[in-house]
Amino acid sequence: MRLLWVIIGVCLAGAKGLAQIEVPLSPAVEQRIAAAYLSDDERRELRVYHGLWEQDDLDSPARRAAAALSVGAIGHAWLSDPQAPLLDRAEAMLQRGELVECLDLLAGEGSIRAMRLRAEALAGLGRYEQADAALDPLVEKMFRDTLEASEIVDGVRGLLLRMQIRGPARGDGTDYRQVLSLLNKARDELDRLAWPVRLAEAELLYSRHNSGEAADAALEALSLNPRCVRAWALLGRIRVDQFNFDGAEQVARQIDSIASPMGVVSPEAELIRVRSLLRQREAEMADAPVERLLGAYPLHREGLALRAAVAAGKYEFDRAAELLALFDELSPGNPLGWYEVGRVEAETRQYEAAAASLAEANRRLPNWSAPLIERGLLEMQTGRDDEALSALRRAVQLDPFNARAANSLRLIEQLAGYARVESEHFIVRYRPGVDEVLAREMPAVLEQIHARVCGNQAGGMDHEPPGKTVIELMPNHEWFAVRITGMPSIHTMAASTGPVIAMESPREGPGSQIGPYDWARVLQHEYTHTVSLSRTHNRIAHWMTEAAAVYLEDAPRDTATWKLLADAFRNDALFDMDEINFAFVRPKKPTDRAQAYAQGHWMYEFIIERWGPGAPLELMDRAAEGMEPNEAFKVVLGVDHEAFLAAFKQWARGQLEQAGLLLDEQVPTLSELLEPWLAKWVAEGVEPTPERRLEALHAVLADVPNHPDVVEAVILAETARTGGEPTAELLELLERYARLRPVDELAHRLLARWYLTRDDPDEQLKAIPHLEYLDVRQTQGASFAAELSRLYVRAGDLERAWLKAERATMVAPFDANLREHAARIALVRKDLQAAERHIEALTIIEPDREQHMRRLEAVRAMRAGRSSG
Q1: How far apart are CA 388 and CA 844, in angstroms?
Q2: What is the three-class DSSP state of 83?
Q3: pLDDT for 423-469, tens place per residue?
Q4: How far apart are CA 400 and CA 394, in angstroms?
Q5: How many alpha carbons lie under 13 Å from residue 586 in its C-beta half-sphere?
Q6: Per mean pLDDT, which range of 210-224, 395-409, 601-615, 805-819 is the poorest?
Q7: Residues 6 or more apart from 309 whose CB is under 8 A from it?
Q8: For residues 188 and 606, what is the distance between their CA atoms, to the nearest angstrom?
Q9: Do the beta carbons of residue 241 and residue 12 sit within 8 Å?
Q10: Is the predicted pLDDT of residue 786 greater than 90, yes or no?
Q11: Strand boundaries in 677-784, DSSP class E
């Protein structure tokens, strides 16, 4: 028998990025089917069971029904055939949402599978007391009879439903371990090739937010049955959770291809698409897949719940309420609709509505942990920690092995012991210890940020959020990630959820992702999100909230960003107004997300320059009213998206020309200028060695001395010969390049390096303007600010030396050497209060060094003497 390979890509927990892996058909399955002792009929039965059938194998109603269930073709006529097995027909009815009909069909059936189906149908109808009673005989059979692997799987599903209805019998996780042990027994002792066991294990692990092991179990199920659509669907859900939306669509198409020979709509594929679009904040586009699903299966409960969630995602709250009422007509008391709506409301930051929806879901089924977990995470995002603590404690009691709930509960319990510092508009919370050094200094900086972001100067939001914003200083990256998402797997250093901004402490050492960084600039960005979301009631286009935040960083664009924009412009690859939103959450190229940030900021600058600083705020207000973005542009700016982009590109061309990144079309490119030399080398049969290339570049430079690409190429070629070091002969060329391309850091870095390595102190001071250029663009580390402070001290400019020392200690607040330097300058300036602040910080950073305490006491005595004098 030929080897069947299933090729999929899955992002495993702990892996870096998306790994393409191969899942071969289990050799044991091949051996089982090829066994010589099997009859043709037995071999045919096994091929159907393992998803390896060919059309001739589907020669009976039972085999056809089994195949249809395997591929998720629940609407196929084979599953309505009276000759098909009754339980397969009932399973299809259950999945289609025909719950009353399912119960009628099951009347008098007493197998474990029938009991499980009956209980699930009753639960789907919201009749939980009856569902619980229907599980009594199942539980009795589970612990009395000797069961086959398939019966254990049905029994486990029944036990999990009972836990959802009643809650666990014990709070120590015994119930969960018991269920796992039953599945382990079915797998290890009864049938190692039973793919339903692996599938049940995968779904159980996924429900506990153990995505890595869930993916492994799903892949094992696929190695035993490559047509198991439910295993594929679980992998699709994991991809949606991990924001791998292209991967999710690949899985949906794979499911479509598996189900397409049956000629029916695949509900699992459409569910993946709906969830993916909702996660991308593209609820308008989610209408199509949800309607395809419900067009085929109008009673499908998950589809009906998601239809209401789609309405909520479009901010059509009255419509969502109507759809929830329709859901309740079918399944009164069932919490699924409220749960799905609440999740979407939370993701769109409609926090009050989400809290109400999730509370209603919890009221309907109090022992189901999922709404409690979502409610706990939501309350963490809003800063209501008491409510979060209550919800998460209850969730962990019900579901102690849920990784997301357990991680979040541990964090919220830790937060209860955090200290706090308050100012007029902020609360800073921090773990007692060395982070106190930074926490004490943050309020003054934060109030300056508030004045800028909430003010009415160009780019300001002209709005204040209600209440104080909470800044939570997380001690390391792991806890920062848990604070934001509930799982330790996020790659940034700060994030705003609206009322709360969490940030990783800018420290070196284990657990830190990037070390010291310009946290004030980062918080100014994140606080802009807080304020813009408040102004728009969390209804703002993704590109615009990011554009406003980057604009309000009040920092110049760095070289890499300028070159990224120039490259996009030259290649006609700037995003349109739809593409830019997708680029944030569904990038097609590695540079797409960075380009979306950069282009959005660029467009925001253009709007302010062309239409004035009030124009972006008017656009935000129209978004808050629910106006469609293109219409808002026409109302506020007088142009639609297409006309706006045309005008923007014309303006952008001028910007790039001023930056020296775009030359007149009549000016030859560097490649064109080098073509004669390349032709000469080819004719001579010689290699274009670095020496020959440098000779050619100098010759070209003599002809076009102000061509920025040529000047840059000569600089790079010359420094390549010297190990990156500048030479005296390059100084004039470096100064020229700095004038020709004022947005490029290259010349400033090399000039700063040249002057700093001179023996003459006066020559070293010439590095100052170049270091200033670099410092304002530096986001990680404080090296430029620290060097500038030392140079200004040498130049006798104590005021500038002090400002740079303050900036250096702000970016790297736990660097003892920088604190020492700042304290010395403060003492020379006779600023005893500032000196005391830095020396006191040293007593916390280096508590074992007694000299810090002695110096602190001395400074305090000096201050006391000054006061008494």
Answers
A1: 32
A2: coil
A3: 999 999 999 999 999 999 999 999 999 999 999 999 999 999 998 99
A4: 10
A5: 20
A6: 395-409
A7: 278, 320, 340, 341, 343, 344
A8: 65
A9: no
A10: yes
A11: none
- Using one digit for the tens of pLDDT, what is the confidence trace for 593-615? 999 999 999 999 999 999 999 99
CA-closest candidate to residue 377, choices 430, 539, 239, 385: 385
Contact indicator for 236, 255 with CB cutoff of 8 Å:
yes
Amino acid letter, 287? D
Q: Which two tokens stand for residue 626?
A: 């629910």
Tell the burial category of 506 from Cβ atoms under 10 Å away from its Cβ (0-12, 13-18, 19+).
buried
Angle in degrees, 0-180, between the axes of helices 403-415 and 369-382, rounded to the nearest 10? 40
When pLDDT is averaged across residues 518-529 and rounded to a whole number, the result is: 95
3-state secondary structure of 372: helix
- For the chain, give the number of residues: 869
Looking at residue 625, the DSSP 8-state letter turns out to be: T
CA angle 182, 185, 190 (to 5 degrees): 130
Burial 328-366 (b: 16+ CB within 10 A, else e): eebbeebbbbbbbbbbbbbbbbbbebbbebbbbbbebbe
User: Which residues face 502 on adjacent strands?
Assistant: 472, 495
| Residue 805 exposure: Cα atoms within 13 Å on the Cβ side | 27
Instruction: For residue 360, give the nearest of 401, 407, 327 by alpha carbon.
Output: 327
User: What span, in angstroms and rounded, lies between the C-alpha atoms of 579 and 600?
Assistant: 11
Residues 6+ apart with CB under 8 A from 282: 582
What pLDDT does residue 322 have?
97
Which domains, ranges and CATH numbers included, belong to the chain? 420-658 (1.10.390), 670-868 (1.25.40.10)
Count other C-beta atoms under 10 Å from residue 704's C-beta: 15
- Write out the two tokens for 213: 């092991």
What are the angstrom distances between the C-alpha of 373 and each of 392, 397, 487, 498, 632?
Answer: 6, 11, 12, 19, 37
How far apart, in whole angstroms, are the C-alpha atoms of residue 773 and residue 770? 5
Please give the backbone phi and psi of residue 84, each rounded to the nearest 5 degrees, phi first: -70, 155
User: Taking phi first (over 0 means left), then psi (-120 to 50 degrees means alpha), and beta for anything else, what does residue 830 get?
Assistant: left
> What is the CA 50 to chain-centroid distance, rounded?
37
Report, in this order, helix, strand and coil percent for the chain, each rounded to 5: 65, 5, 30
Minimal CA–CA distance to 543: which of 641, 449, 466? 641
173-201 average pLDDT score: 89
Give dist(CA 654, CA 478) in Å, integer: 44
Residue 369: what residue type?
S
- 3-state DSSP assignment of residue 592: helix
Which contacts of 27-36 are long-range, i.e. CB under 8 A and separated by 24 or more positions?
A: 28/192, 28/193, 29/193, 29/223, 29/224, 30/1, 30/3, 32/193, 33/1, 34/1
Do residues 716 and 737 lie in contact, with contact meaning Cβ atoms separated by under 8 Å?
no
Report the alpha-carbon distance of residue 142 to residue 150 in Å, rounded.
12
Strand partners, 474: 504
CA-wise closest residue to 10 among 1, 24, 21, 2? 21
**Distance (Å, rounded) from C-alpha 495 to C-alpha 300?**
37
